[in-house]
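Please, structure for the following, as tokens.
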Amino acid sequence: MSAPILATKLFAPRRNLKAVPRPDLASRFEAGLSARLTLLSAPAGFGKTSLVAEWLDASARRPHTAWLSLEPDDDAPPRFWRHVLAAFERVAPGAIAPALELMQRPDPPIRDVILTLLNSLGSSPDPLVLVLDDFHAVTGQSLLEGMSLFIENLPPQVHLVLITRADPPFALARMRARGELSELRADDLRFTPQTADAYLNRVMALSLSASDVASLAASTEGWVAGLQLAALSMQGLADRHAFVSRFDGRHRYILDYLVEESLAHQAPDVQEFLLETSILDRFDAALCEAVTTGRHGQAMLARLEQANLFLVPLDEARRWYRYHHLFADMLRHLLALRKPGHAGVLHRRAAAWFAGRAESYDAIQHSLAGEDYDRAADLIEAGHAQFQRGQLARLQGWLAALPDEVLAQRPRLDLIRAQALRSAGQTERLSALVDRIENRLKEDGDSRLLAQAQVLRAYLTRVRRDLSGAIRLSREALAALAPEDAGWRMLGLLNLALAHHFACQTELAVAVYEELTALSRRFGAAYYLIASMSLEAMLFVHTGRLKDAHRLYETVFDYAEAQGLRNTTAMSFALVGFGELMREWSDFERAEQALLEGVGFGEEMLDAALNGYLNLGRLRNSQGDLAEAVAVLERGLALMRQAGVRTFVTQLESTLSMRRALFALTRGAEGRAEALRWAQARAPHEDDYLNWSLQNEGVAVARIHLAAGDSAEASLWLDRVEENAAALSQLPLLLRALVLRALLLDRQGGRDGALAVLDRALALAAPEGFVRVFLDEGDAVAGLLKKHAPRLPSEAARAYALELLSRFGPHGSAKATGRADAVLVEPLSDRELGVLRLIAEGLSNQAIALRLGIELNTVKKHNSNLMSKLGCSNRTQAAARARSLFLV
């Protein structure tokens, strides 16, 4: 059952009647509606929310404005999007019914929800505005990926307003350049001396002199909250000039002083209530009474609201409230000064109240803050499986807050912590923790828990690419596990299967995957069932059994849909693997959808994210966007560096280096020299042929030598790749090598050899429908197929060659897909490249001759060579071809 919608978050705050009207900023809001996004980004206390509330209140033409106030608990995508939908439904009832219906599923497909919402909004007859307040409170990678998708595809009648203390990680520079972004920042929001005078003298009626107003405006640097606190402190003072003369906004204790001045005018019971309830992030009367052990909570809240003591109502019914964030911080500081240690007592009371209502998150937070570690540990042990689903960072924070002496008495808690670290891919921290767990359990003699710890040790060994060690440790752990430890047994089997998988022991890997699938079905363990089938399908792709992989992926998707698990982390491996299969079959739309959804689980499923970023880079390469292929890998590398997974970082660094070298091939002589330097620095890895990334690197090295005209070196590298591909049973790798071999032989004039190799490649590829292996070589393979298809010995190869040719455009580029590495078998000279760039600029032959200082006949000769090398018949085609090859 999904969590209920918190209605208090859907109401915009009422306009502050004591606020200074700021029509200049309101006009900027109105002007910004023509853009896609309005961003209010400034530190706390700059009046961002109040300003938007004023604009909405003053603008009668904004009746269809959805509002959502965010908090850290909204970091989980399902909760976030449920509230977004509720906000839209409140102002446009019925307009987003299809998205609401999708969201009712137990584990809603978030990407589908977003796309359905966008389609519904695009059909709305009225302009709509969505305001997301405190957007800095949500930081999860998968949520931000979804928001990025939402923003990029907003229909023109929908405008988004983000109120935040920090810039969100979206493509703001690109939106700014396109005129799609309207911004208000701290410098825009600061009170000028004129605005400060209007607030202090007209609104607050303090009758300050011009010099006193200027002094306060300068010392606060226009900070709205500072001026508000100063104004409240001066109410009732006879000598306000003396106060102003002592005021210094840069003093570290000035804010505490202001609060004390404000509190000094309040009755003792009000002061006590404020201090004791300051530990609460949000509260109602009942919670306040539980924490203060007093009565009349509702009456006290009404007094505070009437006194305007920084109380912010969270709903229209005025049941739930919070304090202004800065005010709460100051109250907590005073509480610590006046009643040392009392905050712990208050937190423990709050924890008991939340625990009694089964609100575990708040109960744990307050238990930890109140140093009631046993209660916190009990709550974590009881709900750790729930917390690990989308709450890994929070779970790790809770566990890290527990003292060592508590963890020492609870080895199961240490194992929960280790599981959380494993799920988050934090291998270095996990390694240290497993060392500690094993040492402690060996002393205690607890063989059952020690076997569980050994499963984690096997995982670490596999991630470090000691595959034989991982296989041995996994089998030892599985033999020692207790029969009732089914969850640990499934994790052990998954680790063993992956170790066999990456050791290219295909039959053993398939056997373990099938054992894990059967065990998962028996215990109804959906996560392991989905993971096992997905990874087995991925293995089929690696070994060239594409159709078997497709059948298995379809089974996974059907099962996940039936179980309501389509949009869970369990699907990450299925999505990134299916995306790679669709890429090979040249179905770019389905490939992109699956891969983007898969990498969205990056922070929670690093193993899958690694494959996702690698596969997404290949997709961008196949689409012809070489720059984005590099950028994708850079984003993946940043994620892995942040997570601290060294082996994943190393693999992405290696792949990124390779991709940059291939990209360099498109940049003329200088770029080709750069690529060649990279290739010449590579050395064959005779003793590490099981490393798949090194085999892909070998193909790239061969391609670069081929482009540079070094046929001998290209042939040597292809020999190694073909030998290793056969040993590893990697049909896709073998096919890539064979295609390059056929190009090499054809270039050398070995027609018979090229014909035989091409025939073999086509005959192997046809049964499984390999496409991108051929299309990604672009014009070179198109020319090869045209040249040799009629003479291929095998009838099946001839038929498949004709099918592949139908996918190419008139001059070799793959239809609607762009190029991959854009390698010309016969490179252009520097002079030819210069002439080509001028042709693309639209210059005539005579103008080119004048620009380059050469004879007209020389230009015509270069033109003739260019048409031959590019496979074009006129200058227009040559210019277009040059752009598709990234040559201009």
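Confidence is low (pLDDT under 50) at residues 249-253, 686-690, 810-825. The chain has 47 helices and seven strands.
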